[in-house]
Amino acid sequence: MNIENHFSDDDSGGQAVSFLLEENERIHLLHPQQIIAYQGPSSGRADRLMDLKGMYRKKKLIRADMTGPCRFTAALPPGYRIKSITLNGDDDLLYDFKHLFYYSEGISMQTRILSMKNMVVTRDVVKIKFSGKGSFGLLTEGTVCEAALDPVKPLYVDAGSVIAYPENASLELTVYGNHLASQHMSYQWKMTGSGPVLFQAGRQNRRFEQEIREDGLLKRFLREVLPFGGVIIK
Predict the structure, then answer these.
(1) What average pLDDT does range 145-172 have in this prediction?
(2) 48 Cβ contact partners less than 8 Å away, ≥ 6 residues apart
(3) What does residue 31 show for φ and ψ, rounded to 5 degrees?
(4) 91-150 pLDDT tens trace
(5) Whole-angstrom Cα distance, residue 74 to residue 48?
(6) Is the Cα dihedral 194, 203, 130, 128 positive or negative?
(7) What pLDDT digit, counting tens, does each position of 76-86 carry?
(8) How far is CA 215 from the centre of its chain?
(9) Percent of the chain whose predicted confidence (pLDDT) is above 70
(10) In whole angstroms, what is the distance from residue 109 CA to residue 101 CA?
């Protein structure tokens, strides 16, 4: 399978990604309504009802099973990207199912129940762990960054920007910095352990653009000086 990204300098109108599948290659596309062009035999696309878990997690009823040889292009929302990950066995990272855009034949998923604290922050009940041989694609907001965890030195990451983290990681919901910094920042995951953490930059970029374009001086001042103003004042 080959994937071609179609990005421009100005992504305000949305982007696109093209998939080229060889003979008998198959992927499961969880957002079939995003397909805007298809070239191949008519039988190369078969839409199916998702299972109940998938319907609940994606708020979608249908997935599309795409079988090669074919080429198709899917539209992406403005500011979004596809992060493709290849597996050759077990993966220790836990992902949000909501980020999953596609997965290939040969990839299986297992669920992990979150702690109550994590449920409250992420507004989610489970994470997904992938295994098998193949690839899957994540729909992300902007550039995907990666940082390595340390068993002792904590890594602080904006809670809403985390895409994946190791199953064995230790997580604590907190803020950091001096008194003023901790009051106006968003909640952070304080992480220790081993392995990579994936996080996306687009969420913070949209906040910044909104502040620059729409916020008046008074609103920005209140967000900076009031306790937790950055969280309360949107």
Answers:
(1) 92
(2) 62, 63, 64, 65
(3) -130, 65
(4) 889 998 888 999 999 999 888 877 776 666 566 677 889 999 999 999 998 889 999 999
(5) 18
(6) positive
(7) 988 888 999 99
(8) 28
(9) 75
(10) 14
For the stretch 93-108, pLDDT in tens is 999 888 899 999 999 9
- What strands lie across the sheet with 35-39, from one edge to the other? 2-6, 15-21, 70-76, 35-39
* Burial class of residue 27 (count of CB atoms within 10 Å of its CB; 0-12, 13-18, 19+): buried
* Residue whose token pair is 């068993």: 151
User: Would you say how long the chain is, in residues?
Assistant: 234
pLDDT, residue 122, reads: 61
Give the pLDDT confidence score for residue 59 in this predicted structure: 58
Mean pLDDT across the chain: 82
How far is residue 33's CA from residue 63's CA, in Å, rounded to a whole number? 9
SS (H, E, C) the chain: CEEEEECCCCCCCCEEEEEEECCCCEEEECCHHHEEEEECCHHHEEEEECCHHHHHHHCCCEEEEEECCEEEEEEECCCEEEEEEEEEEEEEEEECHHHEEEEECCEEEEEEECCHHHHHHHCCCEEEEEEEEEEEEEEEECCEEEEECCCCCCEEEEHHHEEEEECCCEEEEECCCCHHHHHHCCCEEEEECCCEEEEECHHHHHHHHHHHHHCCHHHHHHHHHCCCHHHHCC
